[in-house]
Amino acid sequence: MVKFVVLGQEFPLHTDAPEDEVQEILDLVKSQLEVHTSASTSLMPAKVAVLASLNMAGKYVRLKKEYEQHKNAVERTISSLTDKIERDL
Fold first, then answer.
1. Measured between alpha carbons, how far is residue 65 from residues 4, 59, 73, 78, 89 in Å?
2. What is the structure's pLDDT at 20?
3. 3-state secondary structure at position 42
4. Cβ contact 30:37 at 8 Å
5. Can you tell me the distance from the alpha carbon of 3 to that of 31, in angstroms, rounded to the nearest whole number?
6. Could you list the residue range(s) of the whole structural domain that residue 67 is in?
7. What gap in Å lies between CA 84 and CA 89, rounded to an integer?
8. How far apart are CA 62 and CA 28, in angstroms?
9. pLDDT tens across 2-57, in order?
10. How many domains does the chain fold into?
11. C-alpha distances in angstroms, 84 versus 11, 52, 68, 87?
12. Which of 21, 58, 70, 73 could form a disulfide with 17 if both were Cys (CB 3.0 to 4.6 A apart)?
């Protein structure tokens, strides 16, 4: 279990992830929260957390789409190369 503090509150995190991965996740969350708290100091912590979550979710969705496009392009290239090799044999 890892304990971390975000927006003045302590949270326990139960995970089997490697320590460096956990630290990277915590750093990402903290940086996103800092962006939203520095942009508007009048926001309540819950709203800051929601905005940060939406921002990260948006990035995740974009990366997921990019990954699918890349995967499809690689599969087309492999298929094309396989066909070419089979024709040349």
1. 31, 10, 12, 20, 36
2. 92
3. coil
4. no
5. 17
6. 2-88
7. 9
8. 17
9. 888 887 888 898 899 998 999 999 999 888 888 877 766 677 888 888 888 999 99
10. 1
11. 56, 48, 24, 5
12. 21
Task: Give the tokens for residue 81.
Answer: 């190369």
| DSSP letter assigned to residue 62 | H
Q: Which residues contact 32 (CB under 8 A, 6 or more apart)?
A: 52, 55, 56
Query: How many angstroms separate the Cα of 29 from the Cα of each of 16, 26, 35, 74?
Result: 18, 5, 10, 32
pTM comes to 0.72
Residue 27 CA: distances (Å) to CA of 1, 21, 22, 47, 72: 17, 10, 9, 19, 32
DSSP bridge partners of 10: 5
Residue appearing with tokens 């948006």: 58
CA angle 76, 82, 84 (to 5 degrees): 105
